[in-house]
């Protein structure tokens, strides 16, 4: 028995020592072209170089990112199947729908990699040019304006809920499978308002195809200098931001988690990666360690769960 245990332990160490010896799959729970997908692809090429193996970005969109998250939660905990996500799938969706087949405890946090405001934007033909204009229009016609998001339980969805609470207005939520699809709906006039990620909306705002009203952080940011912060826009109590991070399935060996973190940290230091991410209005922010990311999540979880509770968006 002791000999078998020794052999098993040795084999396990050999497996993790050689990690990775095949391609790593980075699962994104949103459609191609959405904010999370754009950032994942900006990182994947350099991460492949750091790991010495291909990093394949795989989209499994739907249900506010929970389809992709569920897939990773059930994956073998060996480091070869990872989740690249925001709070949407690991915090918000489980809070909205307790019947999901996973919770955040089914994941091992590896690294936070970015942070960014969302952008409040509207259809250019709407005649709205400021947050105060938007509030006035919605008070005149409660529920008449539709706001698009990347899905029920996504960060943009909750950003819209939070805005309605702070501004005391009524917007009608229309969920899509990706941030790109939701922004396209605003461009077409099928919906009128969106709280969009910077990669999906900033270029359209700068080209004049969308009208940007504000960033969703309290103060303005150098990432998007042309837009005012919510305090300047007249809603000083409003602040919300998006982050992206990498998760492995629970019980992934710690040495594999550390190898992944080191590779991610190195990839995020690459000048080209930083340039590509920052040009899309997203800031590079890498956690100091997997443990530091876990600590950040504890605080961030409370904000999102309280917002879900107050929104009444919980599915029974």
UniProtKB/TrEMBL annotation:
Pfam family of the protein (one): TctC
Range of residues in the leader sequence: none
InterPro entries in the record: BUG, Bug_dom1
Entry protein name: Tripartite tricarboxylate transporter substrate binding protein
CDD domains attached to this UniProt entry: PBP2_Bug27
Gene3D superfamilies, A to Z: Bordetella uptake gene, domain 1 (3.40.190.150), Periplasmic binding protein-like II (3.40.190.10)
Family, per entry: Belongs to the UPF0065 (bug) family.
